[in-house]
Amino acid sequence: MSAFTITGGRPLRGAARVQGAKNSVLPILAATVLSGGPCVIHNCPDLLDVDSSVRILRYLGCGAERESSSSVAVDTAGMSRHDIPDSMMREMRSSVVFLGAILSRAGEAVMSYPGGCDLGPRPIDLHLSSLRQMGADISEAGGFLICKAPRLTGCDIHLSTPSVGATENTMLAAARAHGTTRILNAAREPEIKDLQTFLNAMGGRVSGAGSSTVVIEGVRQLSGAEHTVIPDRIAAATLLTAVASAGGEILLENVWPEDLETVIAVMAEAGCGIRRDGTTLLARRDKALRAVGRVRTMPHPGFPTDAQAPVMAVTCHAEGTTVFSENVFEGRYRHVGELLRMGADIQVEGHVAVVCGVPKLCGAQVRATDLRGGAALVVAALAAEGETELSGLEHIDRGYEKLEDVLSALGADIKRV
Ligand code: EPZ
């Protein structure tokens, strides 16, 4: 079992290129199933979740290979199965977005419920209800979902909450359906726009992504395409919190600042100087950190729930009190217990966490409880006095590409042991 050892107190300096977006590339890899041909995905980060998607594609009978350090080639012409084994479904949440794609391509799909970070209950009722409205017959037996839809038909689908995954699954199912589908109250995350771009590159007719109505005109056939994945806004946000926590000055390359507005605003309030120039961000923290009042997580364009934990790590040693409201997931404070071990002062009551900044955090033995919670512990450790030993790296490796190399290159004292 590997762990990070991190000795805090070293400011970060230098430049880092931000990886491609995990939450874009996973539905895009699922979407390749619809093409029935060769696709090449560039700026594809090297992550455990990407490996899981590649394994699913191969199990389905498709070709999927990493061509270079940043490109994955997929050929779904030979797809010969329509089921996904339970062990593969449990590896990540995004396994569920294969449902819309497989059902559309094969007319049937068999899979169990997906795994992924434990953030409290993560139902898929909206995914299933959308597919049922499009004509799918879905039953459950022995923990498996058995889905049949010889012909999916477009319709108006009102999501009761703007679920990212349900929006993606519906887009995938609708891309080759008969007629037009409108998703109302759709998720507006940048990753939805990236999926739209890829579907259109394959010959799809999708519009509206980024707004709360996505319109998909079904087409008879899609074909293979090449695509470059957007930058990972949460990896960028995490690096911003890292420099906020450790101090110093870093240049982030391959960033779309407009996707990071709320995080930039919060980090500026905490005392960071942030300058944007095209696709780069220069972030500096040379003054004392200040608390940021209130942080409320919301669906995009609100403050992203995925940045809540890393930002909390910064506020743990900022002067004053910060109040967090987690409004997207029910159980997204599992990192709090670990931050307490490092000397933080945090009280949690339901979906609210009150963080009273302490003058300094101390290195400790801690464990990543989920992907972003794990990143938060790294961010805290960069500023802590002494050494932190962080285990549970399997969570961090699901979403961050060689995080220790990125941070070491910026001057952090972090090693994988
Ligand atoms: C995506 O998860 C991301 N994952 C998450 O990133 C991210 O935190 C989340 O969107 C919100 O931005 C991927 O893209 C792979 P949702 P997803 O469906 O699609 C409820 C990370 O750290 N809901 O938008 O699972 C749900 O319980 C991760 O990178 C239903 O009630 O999120 C939650 O409260 C973790 N029924 C809310 O909607 C459903 O059928 C938002 O979930 C679906 C969702």
Q: Any overview of this molecule?
A:
By secondary structure, this protein is of the alpha+beta class. The chain folds into 2 domains: 4-19 and 231-416, Enolpyruvate transferase domain (UDP-n-acetylglucosamine1-carboxyvinyl-transferase, Chain, Alpha-beta prism); 22-228, Alpha-beta prism (UDP-n-acetylglucosamine1-carboxyvinyl-transferase, Chain), CATH 3.65.10. The protein is 32% helix and 25% strand. It has helices spanning 22-35, 48-59, 86-89, 98-106, 125-133, 164-174, 190-201, 233-246, 261-269, 308-315, 336-341, 371-383, 393-399, 403-409; strands spanning 4-7, 12-17, 38-42, 63-66, 72-75, 108-112, 137-141, 144-148, 156-158, 180-184, 205-207, 213-217, 226-228, 248-253, 273-277, 280-285, 293-296, 321-325, 345-349, 352-356, 365-367, 387-391, 413-416. The strands form 6 sheets. It has a 4-stranded mixed β-sheet. The chain has a 4-stranded mixed β-sheet with strand order 2-14-16-15. A 4-stranded mixed β-sheet has the order 4-5-3-13, covered by helices on one side. The longest helix has 14 residues, at 22-35. It is elongated. The termini are close together. The model has no long low-confidence stretch (mean pLDDT 96). It binds ligand EPZ.
List low-pLDDT spans.
Answer: none
What is the annotated CATH architecture of the largest domain? Alpha-beta prism
Distance between the termini: 9 Å
Question: What integer value in Å does the Rg equal?
Answer: 21 Å
How much of the residues is beta strand, in percent?
25-35%
Shape: elongated
Average pLDDT number: 96
Number of domains: 2
What is the subunit arrangement here? single chain
The biggest sheet, with number of strands, parallel, antiparallel or mixed sense and barrel status, is:
4 strands, mixed
CATH topology of the largest domain: UDP-n-acetylglucosamine1-carboxyvinyl-transferase, Chain
Helical fraction equals 25-40%
Structural class: alpha+beta
Across the major sheet, the strand order is 21-22-1-23
Specify the CATH class of the largest domain. Answer: Alpha Beta
Q: Catalogue the ligands.
A: ligand EPZ
Instruction: Give me the count of strands.
Output: 23
In DSSP terms, counting alpha (H) and pi (I) runs of 4 or more, how many helices? 14
CATH superfamily of the largest domain: Enolpyruvate transferase domain
